[in-house]
Design goal:
disordered C terminus; alpha/beta; 5-stranded mixed β-sheet
Length: 637
């Protein structure tokens, strides 16, 4: 809205210039109305019912005028005269301030003349108009006064807590509704018992834990788990986000923390849930690059309330974050957040449980297996799995089907992991080049001994500039444990460079494209990790680099150099050697299986998508034959 802004209380305020403009409009309207009401006669007459001053004098001289009634207040006269047919007529005539000619003519013809003033209501009308204007102005001033009073009231409540409060937590979510994080549920089951019957623990000297910190990647169910704890315990429940504590003015956040814990103590035992606590609990700065006094004072007040001079019996704080590395050390010590519950990505059994929960209200076809979906989705969080089934349901409705089939499940997985499928390319050089690139990746995934198997390869473009992809089915145990072998890493480097190797072997060095830029970046990063952190190079088992720590999070200044220039040169040479070794390996495999490569590309151009099992069958069929027999078989085919 033009001429307004949002004030500090979230309300729309009006600029003073706009207020003055409205006031001048009111005063102008009042003046116009007053002039109209006071200047208009009590009753108006039509022009056809009037005589001119000259016609009046002529009729008086002709002896036709019988009677004249003058109204001085209106400067008009009513004339009664006879017309040519000797009938009486009555007309009005406008007069001047002085009318000597008229007076002389009236005396000469001895006309009946009478002064009859009308009632003058101009004073009354002026008074009414003035009263109306005063009433309007007073109403306007009262409205401004009321808004200013509300503003002052909001200012007094500025430091009050904005936490949502429920006397009995009716979140509608219990532990049965949370799947895939059984270990975290077991940890929090004790918290529920503390809240329901604390005397069981206090009787033997056990203290109620002050706080529980839920740590995990986004989408793993931290907020859902906190709602389940509140629903199971059935105690008063306060919920607030960490960002709602911090305001522009220093001291407001600390005041809100005090008010929150004051209300919590009045309703103890109770539960306080702070979502995204890293917004207020970040490490206090080292004074470099500026600071945030408001956030730091809020954090200090939170530390005091959780474990300061005054205890908070019966109050358990549950906080959630996906950035535990940035939290202040004082917030994580025992006595404040006594427990840190890891809410990690679900395993196979966890994914299966999550899929069962979200599939309760969805119609699945008979051939859809939740176990197969769980095996195909390692690394997906609970939110990703819920979105997967929802996308499959949306696709089913758009295609006017009665139940979700395997096709919708496959499309939904591709949509949330790769992107939305676009219109396939027409037959052209670009399509063939993409096919060779993707088959190069897929062939290495199938032939290399330590590689994870191929899931599918396709040349159907996806949103985000993806022309096609070759997708692996990663080993779940390796992904969950994070223990990757050197042989597996070297195979991953060769697979990443397989597309570039196929382009160069088929089209030549001059026709190599930039399509492998992301693959090369991934290879460079992985090779550097192998050299500097994992000790998988000729430099030996030494850690030459470690993740950088940000000085703005309260860290100290990083060292300018962790190794000499000579060692840096050796690191560069080792990284380049690992990358070139993988590239040469990929090119050699492309040359040795060139006939198979061409055959697979022709099939991919025809089918546009080849599933992993079919691709492995084709590769096994031709690699088990001698090279000459394979060539003859391909020619016949």
């Amino acid at each position: 809205m033009k001429g307004s802004w949002i004030d500090g209380f979230g309300r729309r305020a009006v600029k003073p210039s706009v207020t003055k403009k409205h006031l001048w409009r009111i005063l102008g309207s009042w003046a116009i109305a007053q002039s109209i009401l006071l200047g208009t006669p009590a009753f108006a007459q039509n022009n056809s019912d009037r005589l001119s001053y000259t016609e009046l004098l002529q009729k008086i001289e002709a002896g036709q005028v019988i009677k004249i009634q003058e109204d001085p207040s209106r400067q008009m006269a009513r004339v009664t005269y006879t017309d040519a047919e000797n009938q009486e007529q009555s007309r009005y005539v406008g007069l001047f301030d002085t009318n000597p000619e008229l007076m002389d003519a009236i005396r000469a013809q001895n006309v009946d003349y009478e002064v009859k003033p009308s009632a003058d209501n101009s004073a009354a009308m002026g008074l009414v108009v003035n009263i109306l204007v005063i009433v309007v102005v007073l109403a306007f001033l009262l409205m401004i006064l009321r808004r200013s009073t509300q503003s002052s009231g909001n200012a007094m409540n500025f430091g009050k807590s904005r936490a949502r409060f429920q006397m009995e937590a009716k979140t509608g979510i219990l532990f049965d509704d949370v799947a895939g994080i059984e270990e975290a549920k077991e940890e929090l089951q004790e918290v529920v018992t503390f809240l329901k019957s604390p005397e069981k623990f206090t009787a033997i000297g056990a203290k109620i834990p002050r706080g529980v910190l839920l740590v995990g990647p986004p989408g793993t169910g931290k907020t859902l788990l906190a709602k389940a704890v509140a629903g199971e315990a059935g105690v008063p429940f306060f919920s607030i986000s960490g960002s709602e504590f911090v305001e522009m003015f220093v001291g407001v956040g600390a005041s809100r923390v005090r008010d929150l814990f004051k209300k919590a103590k009045e309703n103890a035992p109770c539960l306080i849930f702070i979502d995204e606590i890293d917004a207020v609990g970040r490490q206090r700065g080292a004074g470099i690059g500026g600071g945030n006094d408001e956030r730091e004072q809020t954090l200090n007040q939170l530390l005091t309330e959780m474990d300061g001079f005054e205890g908070n019996p019966g109050i358990i704080v549950i906080a959630a974050t996906n950035r535990p590395d940035v939290l202040d050390a004082a917030l994580l010590r025992p006595g404040r957040f006594d427990r840190q519950v890891i809410v990690d990505l679900p395993s196979y059994n966890g994914r299966l449980g999550i899929l069962k929960v979200h599939a309760r209200n969805k119609k699945l076809a008979d051939d859809v297996s939740l176990e197969a979906i769980a095996r195909r989705t390692p690394g997906l969080s609970g939110a990703d799995l819920a979105n997967l089934l929802n996308e499959a349901a949306i696709l089913t409705a758009r295609r006017r089907k009665d139940a979700i089939s395997l096709l919708e499940i496959d499309d939904a997985i591709d949509r949330i992991t790769i992107g939305l499928a676009l219109t396939p390319l027409l037959d052209c050089k670009k399509k063939r080049l993409i096919a060779y690139h993707e088959v190069g990746h897929a062939l290495l995934m199938t032939l290399l001994e330590n590689s994870d198997p191929l899931n599918k390869v396709t040349i159907i473009p996806r949103s985000g500039g993806v022309g096609g992809f070759a997708q692996q089915m990663f080993n779940e145990e390796m992904v969950d444990s994070g223990l990757y072998t050197r042989a597996w890493l070297m195979d991953q480097i060769a697979i990443a460079l397989g597309g570039r190797a196929a382009e160069q072997e088929v089209f030549g060095e001059a026709e190599v494209t930039i399509g492998a830029s992301n693959d090369i970046q991934m290879v460079t990063n992985l090779a550097r990790e192998m050299v500097t952190r994992y000790g998988m190079s000729d430099l030996g088992p030494v850690a030459l680099e470690h993740p950088g720590e940000q000085v703005f999070l309260g860290r100290g200044f990083p060292s300018q150099s962790e190794y000499s220039e000579e060692v840096a040169t050796k690191i560069d040479h080792q990284i380049r050697a690992i990358a070139l070794r993988g590239y040469d390996r990929a090119r050699r495999i492309m040359r040795d299986h060139r006939i198979l490569l061409d055959r697979l590309v022709d099939l991919l151009l025809e089918m546009e998508t080849i599933e992993g099992e079919e691709f492995r069958r084709l590769v096994a069929e031709y690699t088990t034959l001698p090279e000459r027999q394979m060539a003859i078989g391909l020619k016949k085919a």
